[in-house]
Recover the amino acids of this structure.
């Protein structure tokens, strides 16, 4: 098998996860292309069900017939290990050596401190002995001198131990900051793909193939860069993508794309079935499915003969009223010399494995039939099940043992015959209707003779990579494919080596855990996940140049594309709330791409201005982006209020409000200013309350809110253009009339 190198060409980052595409080139040897190739070096966080391969260049008719995932274990040489790993191992060795020396010096200090003079025991009837002062002074001097030397060594080793501990912590942090693609393990585990080709293998030119796979551990959020001149017109908006990935491989020089679609969502083209007028016809057979070969059950005749009287292949179930098996009392010795001890000995090994493996004396109950899916009649074989013939009593007939058997064997044959009879009585044939379920729709279908054969297999039965052949010991499913449990692959590894199984499972689980750790990293300020801001559409954005994104679990900014926008500068002021004027830019999205919500970095001229949140802007929509306060524009608002009585009999109150707004432009260019005011709004329940606009110079109008902006009841706006270095004044008068017996909530003065 040829191992072919591959190059990562393109990556599409979805809302969660990424779709990677690798390219490999097959060169013919001796005029022939290899029939099977292997692609190594795939990330461990690869989703095996997402592997796809196709031929894009090569001889006509060359196809990828089969594609299987597997593992690849590499033992890299010392030269391929990162320098950070060598530094970490050296720091660990240094710390271990210093720690050993420090512990040895501390043990010597403790031993010296235990060297103290002891007084001899006083003997009864004898005077006390004279103390050996010279020896005691010599011991004390020796201990002091040695302690001083050892304590100096202890201080020096403690300092070295502290420095070695800090160095080890630093090296560990450096290793943690490495890209996950640069593994520091001595044995590296990768994924691999086995490709089987079919077609014209004989060729005189190269063939180019593409291998696609999905990986976990990748995210992206949109960001923007808005560059405006001082006039706030004809700016440039560039879309960027903040990408974070920890997939286990570095993306170097790849064509990067980002998408708002979910990688887990199924997007298959629906199969439209034709409607025909005429006689009913059976549906055409689905491609890839074949009925079981005839004579399937005869293949296991030798197995049944070797392993005892297994029930013939058929669909069996436990009888609901079958009595439990109870062992009969052992018979007395017969005329052939059959003894009780001999029966007990053979009973202990009855039903055991070859070689005398121990087993229980009670026969196991027959296995329950495996429930079949509703629409998977072909899973049952597509034919009517073969049923073993039974006697009138319902038991499967067995040939009775001969009484003339040799001594020591006849008793065993009789016991086996009794056990077989009991086991046969505890099972009966299950109808197909019971296996398919008790639904009314299924019950009516299986009553027909060919009902089971007309059922359509489930979609999961066409995924041959997840199917397995049942064991020959299973009389119900042997010789047929069935879905394999999720943990079977791990159990199969245990048959080879327990250590390999544990390491593979651990490393694969660790790779997925590391990949999912990116969800704990906080996104940039004002960033919004694309699935939350994409509304009801999905979009894909392609980068204009190749990009590099290392697998280090940190955010990396990648420039994507330049968005054509129509910009219009506006200055907004609400003098009744805030007398300052704010800069805004009206953005009209004239591109076919939607602009998702995210932070936008605004640069005014050559100076960075601020970072603002940008709402979602669909194609053809308009939004207003705030850019802060403009100090060169000044606004002054003055109000005057008059209250008088009106009506023929003075039974009403007239409230007159006068508002004057002055605007001064100190910029070197004209400024278009939007000034907002608000008049009283009359609720429908107050029929005796009226608000009339008396005099407004220049005229104002009711504003139309932009998408995403809330409408304000009673709002009025002036749109004026103030030349550079000039002033403008706006005046407005409105009157509120209400009965004299009433008063406005909060006071009659409303300005």
């Amino acid at each position: 098998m040829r191992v072919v190198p591959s190059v990562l060409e393109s990556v599409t980052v979805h809302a969660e996860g990424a779709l990677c595409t690798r390219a490999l080139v097959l060169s013919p040897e001796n005029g022939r292309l290899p029939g099977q190739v292997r692609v190594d070096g795939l990330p461990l966080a690869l989703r095996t069900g997402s592997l796809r391969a196709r031929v894009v260049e090569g001889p006509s008719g060359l196809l990828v017939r089969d594609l299987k995932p597997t593992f690849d274990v590499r033992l890299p040489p010392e030269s391929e290990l990162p320098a950070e790993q060598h530094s970490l191992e050296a720091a660990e060795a240094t710390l271990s050596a210093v720690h050993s020396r420090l512990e040895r010096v501390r043990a010597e200090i403790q031993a010296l401190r235990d060297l103290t003079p002891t007084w001899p025991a006083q003997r009864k009837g004898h005077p006390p002995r004279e103390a050996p002062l010279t020896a005691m002074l010599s011991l004390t001097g020796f201990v002091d001198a040695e302690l001083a030397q050892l304590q100096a060594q202890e201080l020096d080793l403690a300092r070295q131990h502290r420095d070695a501990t800090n160095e080890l912590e630093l090296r560990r942090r450096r290793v943690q900051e490495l890209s996950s693609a640069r593994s520091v393990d001595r044995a590296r585990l990768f994924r691999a793909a086995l490709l089987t080709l079919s077609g014209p293998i004989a060729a005189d030119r190269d063939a180019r193939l593409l291998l696609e796979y999905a990986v976990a551990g990748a995210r992206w959020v949109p960001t923007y860069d808005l560059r405006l001149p001082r006039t706030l017109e004809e700016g440039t908006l560039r879309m960027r993508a903040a990408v974070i990935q920890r997939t286990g491989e570095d993306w170097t020089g790849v064509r990067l794309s980002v998408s708002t679609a979910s990688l887990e969502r199924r997007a298959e083209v629906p199969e439209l079935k034709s409607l025909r007028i005429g006689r009913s016809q059976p549906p055409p057979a689905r491609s890839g499915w074949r009925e079981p070969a005839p004579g399937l059950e005869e293949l296991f005749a030798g197995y049944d003969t070797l392993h005892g009287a297994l029930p013939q292949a058929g669909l069996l179930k436990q009888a609901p009223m079958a009595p439990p098996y109870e062992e009969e009392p052992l018979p007395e010795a017969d005329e052939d010399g059959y003894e009780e001890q001999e029966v007990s000995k053979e009973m202990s090994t009855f039903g055991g494995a070859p070689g005398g493996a121990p087993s229980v004396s009670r026969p196991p109950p027959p296995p329950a039939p495996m429930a079949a899916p509703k629409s998977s009649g072909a899973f049952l074989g597509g034919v009517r099940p073969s049923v073993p013939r039974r006697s009138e009593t319902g038991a499967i007939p067995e040939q009775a043992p001969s009484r003339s058997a040799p001594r020591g064997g006849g008793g065993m044959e009789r016991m086996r015959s009794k056990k077989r009879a009991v086991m046969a009585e505890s099972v009966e044939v299950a109808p197909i209707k019971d296996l398919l379920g008790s639904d009314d729709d299924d019950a009516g279908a299986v009553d027909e003779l060919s009902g089971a054969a007309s059922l359509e297999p489930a979609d999961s039965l066409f995924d041959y990579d997840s199917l397995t052949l049942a064991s020959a010991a299973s009389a119900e499913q042997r010789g047929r494919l069935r879905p394999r449990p999720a943990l079977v692959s791990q159990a199969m590894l245990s048959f080879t080596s327990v250590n390999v199984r544990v390491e593979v499972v651990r490393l694969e689980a660790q790779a997925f855990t590391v990949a999912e750790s990116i969800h704990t990293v906080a996104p940039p300020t004002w960033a919004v996940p694309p699935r939350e801001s994409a509304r009801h559409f999905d979009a894909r954005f392609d980068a204009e140049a190749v990009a590099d994104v290392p697998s280090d679990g940190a955010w990396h900014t990648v420039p994507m594309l330049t968005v054509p926008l129509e910009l219009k500068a506006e200055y907004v002021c609400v003098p009744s709330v805030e007398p300052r004027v704010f800069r805004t830019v009206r953005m009209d999205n004239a591109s076919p791409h939607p602009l998702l919500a995210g932070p936008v970095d605004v640069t005014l001229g050559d100076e960075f201005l601020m970072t603002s949140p940008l709402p979602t802007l669909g194609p053809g929509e308009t939004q207003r982006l705030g850019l802060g306060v403009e100090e060169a524009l000044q606004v002054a608002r003055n109000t005057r209020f008059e209250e008088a009585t009106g009506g023929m009999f003075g039974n009403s109150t007239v409230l007159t409000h006068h508002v004057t707004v002055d605007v001064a432009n100190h910029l070197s260019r004209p400024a278009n200013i939007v000034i907002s005011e608000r008049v009283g709004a009359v609720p429908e329940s107050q029929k005796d309350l009226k608000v009339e606009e008396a005099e407004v110079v220049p005229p104002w109008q009711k504003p139309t809110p932009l998408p995403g902006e809330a409408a304000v009841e009673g709002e009025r706006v002036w749109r004026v253009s103030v030349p550079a270095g000039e002033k403008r004044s706006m005046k407005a008068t409105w009157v509120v009339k209400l009965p004299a017996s009433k008063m406005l909530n909060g006071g009659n003065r409303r300005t």
